[in-house]
Design brief:
By secondary structure, the protein is α+β, with helices and mostly antiparallel strands. Helices cover 15% and strands 45% of the residues. It has helices at residues 3-24, 225-230, 235-245; strands at residues 55-60, 69-78, 83-89, 95-99, 105-107, 113-115, 130-139, 142-160, 163-179, 183-195, 200-210, 213-223. It has a twelve-stranded antiparallel beta sheet with strand order 5-4-3-2-1-12-11-10-9-8-7-6.
Length: 253
């Protein structure tokens, strides 16, 4: 690499790292999870207990110009340390996803592994708790080193297409560091809500910053498991229903 190119590359990397540091500075970065005393009316929630047949339906990637994709997750196996769910996108072939005892992904439907896990959740949950997460994602094209800090900032009511739920609001900031033919550092923010009554995260707002430009993704719970059990629906019926309920999906309130 020519000296001029090397200097330009290092300058770009330094700017990305500084930007990542600014994002991470918004949260404390403890080496271990911290639990702070909650107000008397704010609950503390233990890890969920899943059972075979539990089902959730999400609308993934909806924007003002895109209708989004339908994701259905169904529990197919449960052990003391792992829960396996069947995942289908838009009524396609089912793939299996593995979760640890905290409900964090350890292997997705494409075979990507997360070592030890994504670290999205750290039970028991209570307002004020924060934790550090770090995982290595291994996929066919290489690896991705992900680290950051998450904090429970509120317990509030959240409205999604499936209804309104009391949920923990969690704010996460971190960095993706990827090395294939080159090394780069990509900061991200992720705000998501975990609803104890649903036993799942019901809403995500994710932003990845590449060159100071944000690439965003959203995911919302569209149909809850009780509706799916009482009203079996075809994929076409579900898509029609999602279209009817689009106006009820809240993107950022």
């Amino acid at each position: 690499m020519k000296p001029q190119m090397a200097m330009a590359y290092m300058s770009m990397l330094a700017r990305q790292c500084c930007f990542a540091a600014l994002l991470l500075s918004g949260l404390t970065s403890p080496l271990a999870a911290q639990e702070l005393a909650s107000a008397p009316d704010v609950p503390t929630t233990a890890a969920p207990s899943y059972k075979v047949g539990d089902t959730w339906t999400y609308l993934w990637g909806r924007t003002d110009t895109r209708p989004g994709n339908v994701l259905v997750l169904t529990v197919v196996a449960v052990t003391e340390t792992q829960t396996t769910m069947s995942s289908t996108w838009n009524g396609g072939a089912a793939k299996e996803v593995d979760y640890d005892s905290q409900g964090n992904v350890t292997r997705d439907g494409n075979g990507t592994t997360y070592e030890p896990s994504t670290g999205d959740l750290s039970f028991p949950l209570t307002v004020g708790k924060s934790w550090f997460f770090h995982n290595i994602r291994r996929f066919t094209d290489g690896t991705l080193d992900v680290s950051g800090t998450s904090k429970v900032v509120a317990f509030e009511q959240v409205k999604v297409a499936a209804g309104s739920f009391d949920a923990y609001k969690i704010e996460s900031r971190g960095v993706n560091a990827k090395q294939l033919e080159r090394l780069y550092s990509a900061p991200f923010t992720n705000i998501y809500w975990y609803a104890p009554s649903v036993k799942r995260i019901i809403k995500w707002d994710y932003a990845l910053y590449l060159g100071h430009q944000a690439q965003t993704q959203t995911k919302n719970l569209s149909v809850n498991k009780s509706i799916l059990r009482s009203e079996p629906q075809s994929s076409a019926t579900l898509e029609r229903r999602l279209g009817q309920e689009e106006s009820r999906i809240v993107g950022g309130d």
